[in-house]
Each structure stands twice: as C-alpha cells, then as structure tokens.
Specification:
369 residues, alpha/beta, Rossmann fold, 7-stranded mixed β-sheet, globular, Cytoplasmic dynein 2 light intermediate chain 1
C-alpha cells in the first residue's frame, strides 16, 4: 500500500469514529484528549504498517565512462578511506546496512560495472539476483570529454534497455503492470502531454555528469549543446539528471543524498533545487522537465538525439584497438600477489624458451639439403 492511500484510509477511519460518536448527541462529541489519543493510535498503526510494507532491500547499479570516478563516488558514500583506487575490471559488489524507522535493518546492494564493452551478460547479474522491483541505476558520464561520452551513454542505455526487456517478458502480468505503472507515475505526474513521446525504463535512472569542475571551463557553445543533449535523453528515458564533481562539496553531497534516497529511501527529496541553465550544474528531478522547456517538440529517439548532438559536437570515432587498450592488471602495483607473480614469471620464461626452440627448429628446417 502506498503512503497516499495510507493517509486516505487514516482520514476515513477518523471520520467514521467522529460520526459514530456524534450519533449520541452532544455527549458523544470527542474531547481534545480523545482525538489526540486516537491520532496517536493511528500513527502507531501507520508506523507498524510502514515497517512491514517498506522494502528491506534495494539495489543500486553504477555504470558509465571509464576513469570518471564511479568507484570514488561509491567509496565516498560508504565513507571508506581511499589510498589508491584500483580500476574496476568487471563487476564488483558491495553493500550497506542501516537500521530503519521500524528498527528492522535495511540493506542496499551496490554493483559497479567496470567496462561497457560486451557487458550484456554482466548487466543481467544484479537484475536477476535482486529483481527489477527495487533497482535504481546511475549512469555516470565524463563531461570533461564531450566529444566522446555519447558512445558511453548509448552503450549503457542499450545494454540496460535490452536486458530489462528480456526480464520484463518473463515476469508475471501483474508484476509487469506494476513496474510500468510506477514508471508512468515517476515521469508523468507533471507533463502528461509528453508521455506519448517518452520511452521510460522500468526502474529509476539517474544520469550523472561527472567532472563538472572541468566541464565548467569549456566553450559555452559546447556546454549548451551538451546540456541540451543530456536533458533530451534524460527526459526521453524518464530519468533524473545531475552534474557532479567530487571537488565541489555541494555537488558531491547531492549525489550522496540521491544514492541514499534511492538505496535507503531517504531523504524525501535529495534535489534541493531545480537548475536548467547550461551555465550552472544541472539538477533536474524525475518528471520535472519537458520537451517544450528543452526546446524540441518533435518526435524523439536516442538515435535522433545522438545524430543532432554529433552534428553540433563532432564525436571522435576511436579505433577499436584504442578502445580495447587497457592497462595490464598483472603490471598494476595495486594487484600485486607475490605467489601468483612468481608463477607467472616462471611460465613466461618457459613460454619464451619454447618460442626460441620453435624459431630455431624453423631455421634448420628451412635450410635446403
């Protein structure tokens, strides 16, 4: 039962109490003490109902651009000390626990996807493990490189959309209808005329523009086109948009509050302001934007938005080899394991010896008789 329904039923019950008492005439009129006592009883029932209906476990999935600060944002939220941040190679899991108002522990599962390359199977892990009902996703993009971030967004969005569609097909009709209704409530309570031109995902998505401290110093035209692009895709998929930098405490706090809100259910509204000016860090909550405010009322799609943005801010087409160029974890001091390193060095020597023998044998065989 949702909270508005709870308050409505509370009002009905109190109204019936007063009507019943008033049937006896003046003597049946409840006193201030009676009203206060009944309100206290109803509030106690409400707290008990909330404790039993509020989810005890929620899931956060974080993905996006490389080296944009995803791990740092998670560590800051959990107040972990950061000496050296190792690169996330595949999919990493952590969790947080909090005692809720009902004195029952709440658990927040946090999954971080290291790379967007061929990540479809990895995306299924948190979705299948915990389900879509209490899932929220943070897509963190690198604003300092507006010529490159679109590929990251497109890859993340398509992976989430395709995986969610597969899972929605396997759900029961009632559960599927509930998720679709939640999505409509999340994005359509203010701009109902835009619902026909939106394609919301069945779970909350927050697009986070990282490294805003660098982005703030870019050319105004680039900033304008980038903000317009991000507002468009955020509105299209029914998400929220937030610019972030760990170097700016105010923005870092908003991101922490947003993770807490979607992971634990508090605070009530983490976005203290509504900002759409491209000269300021954007801050737009679910359902608070519209195509008319963005300035484009035509039918939209991810492909069309990407093509428009690519025309305004040409995207660098990185060669596949460069995209696959990642540091070798075996040479990373953060991944040192003495026993494994010694065995690896021994195997490398054996492989080099075999290669020398093969080359030498090939030279003898190539000599004519």
């Amino acid at each position: 039962m949702r909270l508005p329904q709870i308050f409505h039923s509370l009002h009905k019950r109190l109204q019936k109490m007063f009507e019943k008492n008033n049937e006896g005439g003046e003597s049946g009129t409840p006193s201030i003490q009676d009203i206060a006592g009944r309100l206290a009883e109803e509030q106690q029932r409400l707290r008990q109902l909330e404790a039993t209906t509020m989810p005890k476990e929620r899931t956060i999935l974080v993905l996006g651009s490389k080296c944009v600060g995803k791990t740092s944002a998670i560590n800051k939220f959990f107040e972990r000390e950061e000496h050296t941040t190792r690169p996330t190679l595949a999919l990493e899991y952590s969790f947080g626990r909090r005692i809720g108002s009902g004195k029952s522990p709440q658990v927040m599962n946090v999954w971080e996807l290291g790379s967007l390359d061929n990540a479809e199977q990895l995306l299924e892990v948190p979705m299948r493990t915990h389900g879509l009902q209490q899932l929220a996703v943070f897509i963190i993009l690198d604003l300092s490189q507006p010529q490159r971030f679109w590929t990251d967004f497109e890859c993340a969005y398509k992976g989430l959309r395709d995986t969610a569609q597969k899972m929605m097909e396997k759900l029961t009709p009632d559960l599927r209808e509930m998720l679709e209704q939640r999505a409509l409530e999340r994005v359509g309570h203010q701009n109902k005329e835009d619902l026909g031109n939106q394609d919301p995902l069945p779970f909350p998505v927050v697009i986070v523009g990282g490294k805003y401290d660098i982005f703030a110093g870019l050319d105004p035209a680039v900033k304008k086109h980038t903000c317009r692009c991000l507002r468009s895709v955020t509105h299209l998929i029914g998400g929220a948009l937030l610019f972030y930098s760990q170097r700016i405490p105010k923005l870092a706090k908003v991101l922490r509050d947003t993770i807490s809100h979607l992971g634990f259910g508090s605070p009530a509204h983490p976005f203290r302001s509504h900002v759409t000016d491209f000269n300021e860090p954007l801050c737009i909550w679910f359902g608070k934007d519209s195509w008319s405010l963005i300035g484009d009322t035509e039918a939209q799609s991810v492909e069309r938005i990407g093509a428009t943005f690519g025309a305004d801010v040409p995207q660098l087409q990185l060669e596949k080899q460069k995209l696959q160029e990642t540091p070798d974890p075996a040479k990373d001091p953060g991944f040192k394991e003495s026993l494994i390193d010694e065995m690896r060095a021994q195997k490398n020597e054996e492989l080099a010896s075999i290669m020398r023998d093969v080359l030498l044998r090939g030279k003898f065989e190539s000599v004519p008789n």
